[in-house]
């Protein structure tokens, strides 16, 4: 999923770099408001977690594309869309600078696909599903699974769009094939991603529900249990 | 765990490249990559020039070619796409060893392989000569927003926490009679992912609170920033690499 140097031509990469920069600036402004004492270490851990799972790469030889887990939905659930997008972006920047995963000149494209598109799609679904589904661990698990699955497929189609705009080699009619292959492969990856996201989030929500951003932000606060003013046995 | 502020790719040395301030190296590396990507793919000689440039920096940094090329294999999954292009490209076709290949696709594959490899080599050189701590300091000095450097700091620190917790949980599983071998340990691992996350978070939270109570405000202490923001001379020295690369790219653009 990481686009390496030379796959997309320079002008398109530059346009997407500008786009990603503008969107990330917005995320920085909004994210500053969210980042408190609880969220700062969480954001770091989410980023580290995503970093670790992105190391698992599944090359698909017949199609010549590779895929891996993205983590956008996990980030959106645990730290919210703004800080979440920043977490994924930080992972991508460090990977490009130090590990050579994905070209540095293609960072704008990679950030647009994985950090922006993936997280945005996931958060929109989370916001919708958490309102519709029952407030049970199952409801949360289903939300996590579906949003992770969809976000991975959406991110993969971002690559197809970029290739259509500025691929360095004209694939002609095979572009539809590329779209199909990417969607199919990422549907499978999305199932894995969905399972990991759901188990992680449900476990965290059971033990420390205060750590799940989506639960804090989207569900109306449960009225605090009445505290006896005086004399109550506590 | 406390020792791990040096990532696996860092090569301890005191070469001139190691001594350059990190912000200079990051800027040089990014500009070099942009120059490479901007080069037209038919200018084969230009890529030879870039390769020589990379080799010169590697020699200066005392990074051996075997280490460099071995680590460069990491890009393989990412450039697999290149090998599919000759088969799926359109237009004029040639026969190579009985296979009908698209000429445009072959050019495309060369383009991706050459630019991808040069980019990977450049980032490996940066990684080999810069510690993670310096990397963050460098990004900070390049005016990267504090929220990003903060996330990056914690990310790199918590990677060690995560790995450490995973190892501890594996030992705990084994000492309770689990027999982890090859793929079968995946099931045990998958079942423990949520627990791993929570344990790592709670350890990380304690670390964070300890930092806050010792005066952490979101930026690393001045001691880190201190010694040696880049001088004009160091900027000039590091600028030679992207300057040469830009010249090659400009000549290639004019010639083709």
Q: Distance N terminus to C terminus of chain A?
A: 55 Å
CATH-defined fold name of chain A:
Arp2/3 complex 21 kDa subunit ARPC3
Please estimate the helix content of chain B.
Answer: over 70%
Strand line-up of the largest beta sheet of chain A: 1-2
Number of strands of chain B: 2
Main β sheet profile of chain B: 2 strands, antiparallel
Query: C-alpha Rg of chain B, in Å?
Result: 23 Å
Beta-strand residue fraction of chain B: under 5%
**Share of residues in helices of chain A:** over 70%
How many domains comprise the coordinates of chain B? 2
CATH class call of chain A:
Mainly Alpha
Distinct helical segment count of chain B = 11
Name the biggest interface: A-B, 69 and 82 residues
Averaging pLDDT over every residue of chain B, what do you get? Answer: 79
Keywords:
heterodimer; A: 234 residues; mainly alpha; Arp2/3 complex 21 kDa subunit ARPC3; two-stranded antiparallel ribbon; B: 256 residues; 11 helices; 71% helix; disordered N terminus; ECF_CbiQ (chain B)
Quick recap:
Chain A has 234 residues and is mainly α. Chain A has 8 helices and 2 strands; from the N terminus they run H-H-E-E-H-H-H-H-H-H. Chain A has helices at residues 10-34, 39-54, 72-79, 81-99, 107-132, 137-166, 174-207, 213-218, and strands at residues 57-60, 65-68.
